[in-house]
Design a protein that fits this description.
Shape of chain A: elongated
Oligomer: homodimer
Structural class of chain A: mainly alpha
Largest sheet of chain A: none
CATH class of chain A: Mainly Alpha
Number of strands of chain A: 0
Number of helices of chain A: 9
CATH topology of chain A: Tetracycline Repressor, domain 2
Distance between the termini of chain A: 53 Å
CATH superfamily of chain A: Tetracycline Repressor, domain 2
Order of helices and strands of chain A: HHHHHHHHH
Radius of gyration of chain A: 21 Å
Number of domains of chain A: 1
Helix content of chain A: 55-70%
Chain lengths: 218, 218
DNA sequence: AACTACTAACTTTCCGGTCAGTTATTTCCG
DNA sequence: CGGAAATAACTGACCGGAAAGTTAGTAGTT
């Protein structure tokens, strides 16, 4: 099991926190906060439970780090989308669909989303951070873009914030579906295809003075 | 505190199970499964912890009862909608919007939804029941209606199951929003209004050979 | 040889579950 | 009809296990 010259551990102070957060994200996503054991997080991170406490004070602090880490890259993606949206709304929506469709396929955002939803009652400050730093930004940017398009006469009237929710909801629910029901035998959704189809539907429903597509594009 | 003739408890065998399930639903919805304490459930139900075990074997059984109870009335609502859908798709969609918009305002379905999402990893059989008995029915019925409308040439081509998800997603996400982010200060959505606006948007996007609304209706 | 990242066994706390005893209610008998 | 005996709904103190958190000592590293 252990080679003679093989040390039974290595000192790698710098690399530990990242490894711990990554392992914790996986376990939290699978089990939820309460049912996630520190022993298992430590095992997956390749260290002992005691070592966790060299880098984090409590379990809750690990949880915070996981949520914070899940926010970071997404903020980047949102800023990038905002920066690229001066054109007509159609373009922005298609861009959103493509980016979001790919993001949710790759990043483990689904598991974290489940956690935040499930633990919002127990850790309100966490839900607040997630909302203020990520969700409100994303929804706000989209709302602003839709409101601007309305003022240009490009989009029908109606609550722009509600329109923004309508745009992103199927993708998010698709992620939740994948995490919740697919493991118990439900038919999965092709998320990028869903995103694409939904945006085309919404464009035909939203955009004023535009000939409707007869066929949904591939 | 206690009047002389006032008994310190009453024997009300018949009424207990319902009261327990109702109290448990509230606590589970607030705290999630693991963080919900039997002591608190008992307190809110007006009995002692020991009495819980006169009516349920384990905590998990209480949890199952809560989920089952949350499914029941919704199944009724779905069957009613299916029964009333022979007309054109527009009518069905408006009916769905109205029913769902009202259901989610009144029933505590949001809390249960949170639970099922959050605990799907720990109780797969629960997620399976929820899916098979409720979600798959609802989505399937809507998918069938959309597919039929496509065959009548009433609705554009595309994956009908994805269209069904697109239709219901904003309402569900609105409920999740209310349960997750509104308590920490997020702007709430007017759910019936959201449902109505979304259906009108989807109709304009989905239905073929139909003049588009210029204005979103009230 | 000094330093400290790291481990593993330990302590503490909490909570689901149990049970012996208590009290409201019903039944039965005088 | 009234009071005592029987019944079972109910309580609350207790138990055991699991998991968060601690620490004394070990072993890589410099």
């Amino acid at each position: 099991m252990l080679e003679p010259g093989e040390p039974k551990f290595r000192r790698r102070k710098a690399a530990r926190p990242g490894e711990i957060v990554e392992a914790a994200m996986a376990v939290f996503a699978e089990r939820g906060y309460a049912a996630a054991g520190l022993e298992e997080i430590a095992r997956r991170a390749g260290i002992s439970k005691g070592s966790l406490y060299l880098y984090f004070e409590t379990k809750e602090e690990i949880f915070h780090a996981v949520v914070a880490q899940a926010i970071g890259p997404n903020i980047q993606a949102i800023r990038a989308m905002i920066a690229a949206h001066p054109g007509p709304l159609e373009e922005l929506l298609r861009l959103v669909a493509e980016r979001v469709g790919k993001l949710i396929e790759t990043l483990p955002v689904g598991g974290v989303l489940k956690m935040v939803i499930g633990e919002a009652g127990n850790f309100p400050q966490l839900a607040r951070v997630w909302h203020d730093d990520l969700v409100a930004h994303a929804l706000g940017a989209l709302t602003d873009a839709i409101r601007a398009a309305q003022q240009r006469g490009e989009v029908r009237s109606g609550d722009p914030r509600a329109y923004a929710l309508e745009v992103i909801a199927p993708m998010l629910l698709g992620v939740i579906w994948r995490e919740t029901f697919v493991p118990v035998g439900a038919e999965p959704f092709d998320l990028p295809a869903l995103a694409h189809q939904h945006i085309e539907t919404m464009i035909d429903g939203l955009v004023a003075g535009r000939p409707k597509n007869r066929e949904a594009a591939t």
